[in-house]
Amino acid sequence: MSAAATRTSGQQDHLWSVDDHLKDILATVQPLEPIELNLLDAQGCVLVDEVTVALSLPPFDNSSMDGYAVRVSDVEGASEEFPAVLTVIGDVAAGAAGLLEVGPGQAARIMTGAPLPPGAEAVVPVEWTDGGLGGAPVSGMRARSLSPEDATGQVRVHRPVEARAHVRAHGSDAKAGDLALAAGTVLGPPQIALLAAIGRGTVRVRPRPRVVVMSTGSELVQPDEELASGQIYDSNSFALTAAARDAGAIAYRVGAVTDDTETLRSAIEDQLVRADLMVTTGGVSVGAYDVVKEALTAISEDENDSGEDAEGEGEPEAGHGVEFRKLAMQPGKPQGFGLIGPDRTPLLALPGNPVSSYVSFEVFVRPAIRTLMGLEDVHRPRAKAVLRADKALTSPAGRRQFLRGTYSDGTVTPVGGTGSHLIAALARSDALIVVPENDTSLEPGTEVEVLLLG
Fold first, then answer.
1. Per-residue pLDDT tens for 284-310?
2. What is the rounded distance in angstroms from the CA atom of residue 108 to the CA atom of residue 101?
3. Average of pLDDT values for 215-243?
């Protein structure tokens, strides 16, 4: 039985560890089902099956330079004083078919990417020739069709070449049957380029998860609007939506919802249709206006009642509904997690203080998003660093504390204080200093663990 299946409302007073809460989330969240997507739609997705090379790259020997395709023996010993004089038999452009055959004493003008014609063994860059002009070496090549007066029928070559010089060999990049991309690869621009180059127009991937971010609070106002007394701008929904996109998701931001249970309940139910994961921020502690608990509890009760009627068993489906928890963590003690809606959509309810919500996202939501994507490594990288500080850092006993910091060359320096409202300090940070539950003080020079955010 999964950890999610043992979730009960009677555990609300239990103090969960960070690790147990995360373990419960990752045991419940499952990778999204694979789908076939066009290449550009698959950007950022995780490849489900390995892809082998169907067509060798390059598919034929071709020139890496503008110049002349020649036989090596015909230019042996060529110099500025004694150039090799060859008869130009024609042009070979990229995409050309029905190629000319280069015989003794002959050369074919060739463009970059054009197939090497039969009989030719190497390419002489145009800069090593007179360009067929009867004079000194030239620095460029004009198309023969645009300058027929320059194609005299002979070219003077001023330097020798070795066999296969300036030739991209057939299969030198990848050979047919080679592994092109392994399953689990995240498809970025280079990977999409490779798929296109071997002729794959579609690919089977796990789609990027759709994440809906919703902030709550009657005090929240959207940026650019006028602030009234007691109001603040909504930063959480912007921060978490950006963080979800950074994690690889398709993220939708919902403007702040007022502290009204029915309004919030309706907003959550409306958003479920486009969500593989929902994230709320605010309203999860013990305040009189913490309506996220009320709204989600009401949704869960309705669903469980519906399940009882449909099944006739009198028992709701295990693991359905959101449980609100207290964690041995600072910041981010109040958390909520569960499954809601007809599709059992995972929902993570985060605290409302800006730093608390962002730290909670990095520790819990980002791994959930990466799990939905089908990635094996879902966590931010961690490193050991030497603490650089003016004084010892203190931490409450029994709490895992996450402090903001800047990391550089194996050292980390705290930024700002411990307050969960210090957004400016968060903006200057690129790491979180992890203080274990049993440590109440960290002296300067101590080796600490850091979570790297960059």
1. 765 545 678 888 877 766 666 665 444
2. 9
3. 90
- Please classify residue 307 by burial: count the beta carbons closer than 10 Å to its beta carbon, then call 0-12 exposed, 13-18 middle and 19+ buried: middle
Kindly report the pTM of this predicted structure. Answer: 0.83
In the chain the first and final C-alpha atoms are separated, in Å, by 37
Integer Cα distance of 144 and 128 in angstroms: 18
Asked whether 84 and 74 are in contact (CB, 8 A), the reply is: yes
Burial 264-285 (b: 16+ CB within 10 A, else e): bbebbeebbeebbbbbbbbbbb
User: What's the rounded Cα separation, in Å, for the pair 169 and 102?
Assistant: 18
With 70 as the cut, is the pLDDT of residue 148 above it?
no
* Tokens 């990095």 -> residue: 362
Q: Model confidence over 231-254: pLDDT tens digits?
A: 888 899 999 999 999 999 999 999
Bridge partner list, 394: 441
Q: Is the peptide bond before 58 cis (omega within 30 degrees of 0)?
A: yes
- The tokens for 421 are 């409202």
The two three-digit tokens of residue 152, written as one number = 């005299």
Beta bridge partners of 451: 382, 432
CA distance 11 to 2: 16
Give CA–CA dist 44/28, Å, rounded: 23
Q: Per residue, what are the HEC states of the chain?
A: CCCHHHCCHHHCCCEECHHHHHHHHHHHCCCCCCEEEECHHHCCCEECCCEECCCCECCCCEECCCEEEECHHHCCCCCCCCCEEEEEEEEECCCCCCCCCCCCCEEEEECCCCECCCCCCEEEEHHHECCCCCCCCCCCCCCHHHCHHHCCCEEEECCCCCCCCCEECCCCCECCCCEEECCCCECCHHHHHHHHHCCCCEEEEECCCEEEEEEECCCEECCCCCCCCCCEECCHHHHHHHHHHHHCCEEEEEEEECCCHHHHHHHHHHHHHHCCEEEEECCCCCCCCCHHHHHHHHHHHHHHHHHHHHHCCCCCCCCEEEEEEEECEECCCEEEEEEECCCCEEEEEECCCHHHHHHHHHHHHHHHHHHHHCCCCCCCCEEEEEECCCCCEECCCCCEEEEEEEEECCEEEECCCCCCCCHHHHHCCCEEEEECCCCCEECCCCEEEEEECC
Angstrom CA distances, 87 to 156, 165, 292, 403, 443, stand at 9, 20, 84, 75, 81
| Phi, psi angles (nearest 5°) of residue 263 | -65, -45
For CA atoms 121, 127, 128, 129, the dihedral sign is positive
